[in-house]
Every structure is written in C-alpha cells, then in structure tokens.
Amino acid sequence: MEPTTGAPVDAVPRRVPVRQLSRWHRGARRIDDGAVWAPIEQVHWDGTPVREDPAPERDRGSGVAWRRAGARTAPPPDPLPGLAALVLLSLVTAFFAWVSAGPFWLAVGHARVGTVVIDKCTGGELTQRCRGIFMADGGRFLAHGVRVTGVPAGKNAPGTALPARMAGPDGGTAYADTGMGRHLRWVPGLLVILACAAGITRWTGSTRLAGRRNRRWAVSAAIAGPALITLGFLAAAW
Q: Rounded to whole angstroms, how far apart are CA atoms 163 and 128?
C-alpha cells in the first residue's frame, strides 16, 4: 500500500494530472505534452487535489459569538438562597422592630409619666425581672402586672415606688431608667434593622441586576420591606 494515498503501490503512478487548477497549487509541473502534473503527496489517486474544506462562515463565527455572549451575560443566580435570606432577615427585622418601638417613642417624648410600685422581682443583675403596678399622673389610667425595666440596684424590694413612664395604657412595660439608658433600648435595634436591610439587598441580588433602572427599583424594594415593617410596629406602639 502506498503510505500517502492508501492505494496499491503498483496502481498509482508517481505523477498524475491535476483535474482542477487553483492558485494554491504551487508544486505543479508542466510536461512537454502540455498537461499539468503535481506531486503525488498533493493529490488523490484519481488526480483530485488534496485540500481541506474551509469551515462555513456561520460555524467559524459561532464560537467567537458564543464566547462574547457568555462574557456579556452572566448566568442567573439561584433564587433559593435569596428567598431564604429574605424570609429570615424579615423575621429578624420584625422582632427588633417590635422590641424597639416602645423605647423609641419614650425616648422622643411620647410617653405617659407616672409611678410604678414594685410587686416582685426575680433574678439579679442582667437577669433581673420585675413586675409592678403603674399609675399615671393625674389618675389617667392604672396598669396592673406590667413589666418594669431599669430598676436601680437596691430598689427592687416589693412595695418600692419608682418614677416611670409608659407608652400608653395598652403598653405592657414600664420604664424606670433615665438618662442615656432610654436610648440604649432602641438604638441597637435600629442598627440591626439597617443591617437586615443591607443583607436583603445583598443576598437577593438586587445590586447585580442588569441595567441601572432595574437595580434602582430592586434596591428600593429591598430597603422598603424592613422600613414598612418598622413603621407598622411603630404605629402599633403609638
């Protein structure tokens, strides 16, 4: 077998005429009879030139176009982590908005001033829990069994009267602390709510959407959720 063409050695001549002339053919020779001959390595056994067919234009450009499209468009994120983060951070926001609404109104001056009488206290230091009876100034209302916070050390004996404030007759907590202590009850909660809003914006992918307008609307919606939850608890605590 001839190694180049795969044909029998005695069936293939050393030179064969080229059927089709082309510009790429540089090794052809012209013989005395006027025929054009080419080396056996550049033709098939029947004289057809050996050349590779060029790839179609659409096939050659498809790879480049696919790479460009892949570079421009990022795959969409998995919605499950974003949804889980949205639900979890919304619940955390609701909790801290609930515990911070009453102290916030008291800190800004929306409160009913009065006197609380300690009924009983359990625990000590940071674990102290006290209950008492709150009477608003002027006899506007009387609240029994309210929780008392901010009780000074040594003044937690039953029957001790302390000045305190409540958000209203429907409130369940009387605050006996004064000074900066009143602000320490709502500022940390507000910071946690802001952190939850930032976490919702980050984990839901609002900042990674294509288009400035889409990102703006998505970020606004992510921030509006915790804000509406906080406003709802503030309205309920009023």
A: 18
First-last CA distance in the chain: 101
Contacts with 192 (C-beta within 8 Å, 6 or more apart), sequence order: 92, 93, 96
- Enumerate the H helices of the chain as residue ranges: 57-72, 79-107, 187-203, 212-237
Lookup result for tokens 């008492």: 132
Q: What is the three-class DSSP state of 142? A: strand
Sheet with 29-30, edge to edge strand ranges: 15-17, 36-39, 29-30
User: Is the CB of residue 195 less than 8 Å from the CB of residue 85?
Assistant: no
User: What is the CA 148 to chain-centroid distance, rounded?
Assistant: 40
Question: How does pLDDT run across 100-153, given as a tens digit for each residue?
Answer: 988 888 888 778 889 999 988 888 777 888 999 999 888 888 888 899 988 887
Q: What is the rounded distance in angstroms from the CA atom of residue 154 to the CA atom of residue 55?
A: 92
Residue type, 35: A
Write the CA distances from 17 to 11, 26, 31, 129, 212, integer angstroms. 15, 14, 10, 109, 67
Sign of the dihedral through C-alpha 5, 10, 12, 16:
positive
Instruction: Provide the whole-model pTM.
Output: 0.58
Among 146, 144, 150, smallest CA distance to 162 is for 150
Owner of token pair 């176009």:
65
Contact 48, 19 (CB under 8 A): yes
Quick check: 154 and 181 in contact, CB under 8 A? no
Q: What is d(CA 182, CA 227) in angstroms, rounded to the nearest whole number?
A: 22
CA separation for the pair 10, 137 (Å, rounded): 125
